[in-house]
Amino acid sequence: xxxxxxxxxxxxxxxxxxxxxxxxxxxxxxxxxxxxxxxxxxxxxxxxxxxxxxxxxxxxxxxxxxxxxxxxxxxxxxxxxxxxxxxxxxxxxxxxxxxxxxxxxxxxxxxxxxxxxxxxxxxxxxxxxxxxxxxxxxxxxxxxxxxxxxxxxxxxxxxxxxxxxxxxxxxxxxxxxxxxxxxxxxxxxxxxxxxxxxxxxxxxxxxxxxxxxxxxxxxxxxxxxxxxxxx
Length: 231
Prior knowledge:
The protein is an alpha+beta fold. It has a single domain (2-230), classed as Glutaredoxin (3-Layer(aba) Sandwich), CATH 3.40.30. The protein has helices spanning 12-27, 54-62, 68-78, 95-108, 110-126, 134-143, 148-156, 161-173, 196-208; strands spanning 2-7, 35-40, 52-53, 90-91, 178-179, 181-184, 188-191, 229-230. It has a 4-stranded mixed sheet, sandwiched between helices. The chain has a two-stranded antiparallel sheet with strand order 3-4. Helix 1 links the parallel strand 1 (2-7) and strand 2 (35-40). Helix 1 crosses helix 9 (196-208), helix 4 (95-108) packs antiparallel against helix 5 and helix 6 (134-143) packs antiparallel against helix 7 (148-156). The protein is globular, with a radius of gyration of 17 Å.
């Protein structure tokens, strides 16, 4: 079974969704036959190239009331082992990080890509790392088994840029409008950071080839609320 997860490093609910899906996968009887691949999506394609403090950027873009979303997701994270630190987090364009994930998948395989995805999310949301910086990204890549010099050279040039843009365009073309979105076998889609039990049920349905098409939830009116992030 192939599961393609559309998500953004800058999406807090994507971190929740990843963690809950992994909890479900650990309980799934057929987990050894599941291949998980991460696909790129950018919530804010025009995000700044120079990192800015998260809270400052969020309030400026969505208004002061948006800061309450940080409190909600922080509480959700505590229950599944995620330590959000929005006081130190910085916002930056995630395109370069998505390129690095493309390198991980194509040259090292899905398992290394998944490890890198986890490391990027933790770095961004818990450690205040600038995930748009080449040296920082190369260091994170090395921690997951990717050759540091290869990663740095790759990011310093344009390798993977065209492929990453094409993948971003494809996400829009197939109707992904909010993340995380989980696509099972290219047929069934589940949107949002659902509970682990929901993901487990879907895994079992797909394995049995009896699932009805699961229609993605309507994009929320506000950004990053109630389980997913939307434009």
